Amino acid sequence: MQSPREAGEPPPTTDRAFPAHRAARSGGLDELDAHLIRCRACPRLVAWREEAGRTRRAAFRDWQYWAKPVPGFGPPDAALAVIGLAPAAHGANRTGRMFTGDASGDFLFAALHAVGLASRPGATHRGDGLELYGVRITAPVHCAPPQNKPTPDERTTCRPWLAKELELLAPSLKAVVALGAFGWQTLLPVLQDTGRPLPRPRPAFAHGAHLVLPGPGDGPPLHVLGSYHPSQRNTFTGRLTSAMLIDLLTRAASLAGLNGQGG
After folding, report:
1. Does the model's pTM come out above 0.90?
2. Where is each Uracil-DNA glycosylase-like domain found (predicted)?
3. pLDDT digits (tens, 9 = 90+) for 164-192
């Protein structure tokens, strides 16, 4: 007699196979996100995100934390994707929207607004009216990790969500910005798996790095750019300035065929 799994039943949300199984079977971004927010495949991340939601920071003691995996944010026909690292414990893990509610997000959304890719320069919560124009923001790891450092196993387990998200965006996607070395190192093999050959040796991350990857078959090329992550460590030290990020996002928007408000 077959077990439920042998009979084709989906793995439970706590199983490491859950992301790959559910991502592969998602027919659109809404379906993908609905499966993603149920994921409990990484015990350490589940414990950390939920503990942050229980203990809270004093400034957010009246908040009901999201404390679940955080899905990507932006239109389903985005021409530009921005890939971060993971939700912050008291930022996106609190608000439920990528890069929303912390200093890194304030820095990023101000730059996106300056380039004409966001309707407002700040992001405070999911219902604040913020819209993105032609750009979708996501991450390789969708749960807040301790010390902002996912393990290699956690990154691997979460990878199918990013792979499927980029696959669903592929018909419109023309450019991707990877924020930081972690995003860069995770993104490149995902793109290779979609049929886009990488140069050898594999290009190293750098701010301003620019790859042009040929499309599978006769598909159009994809531009991949690297940027320092807008972490407080980088922005407070001046390693990444507002002007630097605005300049890079302007280049990315041009490569993606965007000219403010998605066109």
Report:
1. yes
2. 71-249
3. 999 999 999 999 999 999 999 999 999 99
